[in-house]
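User: Second chain of the day. Same drill as before.
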Amino acid sequence: MSGSGNDPAAKAMIEAVGISKFYGDFIAVKDVSFRIPRGEIVAFLGPNGAGKSTTMKILTGYLAPSEGRALIAGHDMASDRIAGAERLGYLPENGPLYPDMTPRSLLEFFADARGLAKNRKRERIESVVKQCELGSVIGKAIGKLSKGYRQRVGMAQVLLHEPDVLILDEPTSGLDPNQIREMRETIRRLGEQKTILLSTHILQEVEALADRVILISEGRVRFDGTPAELRQDGRGLDDRFHELTRSA
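Assistant: Same format as last time:
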C-alpha cells in the first residue's frame, strides 16, 4: 500500500486541503495538505507541539480551520460534520471516560447516544468487547482499571458504530511495554479493514505499524512518504527525524 496516498485514482478517506489554524499571531498549523486512501495506516509524526493534535481536531470537526478544508470519506467536516462523524472513530489522547461507569454501561450509553437499534446495540457491544478483550473487566469501574484497559475501553467505544476511518491521537502514550505491544496488535488488525491516521512522536510506532509517514514540524508538513523513503541513504529514523525537525 506504500505510496498509494499519491495515487489520484484512489478515493481519499481522509483529506486535508490547505488547512491552517491561527490563534492571533500564533500559527498552530499552516497550509497542511495530504490525502489518505482506504486501507492505509499512516503515522502522523512530529515533535511535541508540532501541530499534530490541532490538525487531528480539525479533521474530526472538533476545531474549525482558519483556512482550508477537512474531509472524512468525502464529507466536509465544517459543513457536513454529522455525515462525516458517522464514518469516523476518534480516540483522543487521554480520551474522556466516566470513572464510575463500567465498560458495559459506558458502551450502552454511547450506543444509545448514537441511536443504535436494540438488536444491533447488543451485537456491537458483544463484538467490541471481544475485539478489545474486555471480557474480564466488563463489570468493573473504569476508574479502577489500568491505563492499558482504559485505552481498550476507549478503543471499544470508538469502534462501536463500525467506522471506516480511525483517527488515533497517541494511543500508546503512558502504556507499559506489554500494553504497547497489545495496542499495536489491535491497530494492525484494524488496519486490515480500516483507514487509520495514527498520531505519534515515537519512532518505533512508525517501524511497527505504518505504511506511510507524514511528518509535521512547526505546523507544516516536512515529509510525506514511506518509512523506507524517510530512512533515505540508509540513515536511521532518529537521524532523519532530527534533521527534518531541527531545520524546520
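The CA atoms of residues 227 and 234 lie 11 Å apart.

User: Great, on to the next one.
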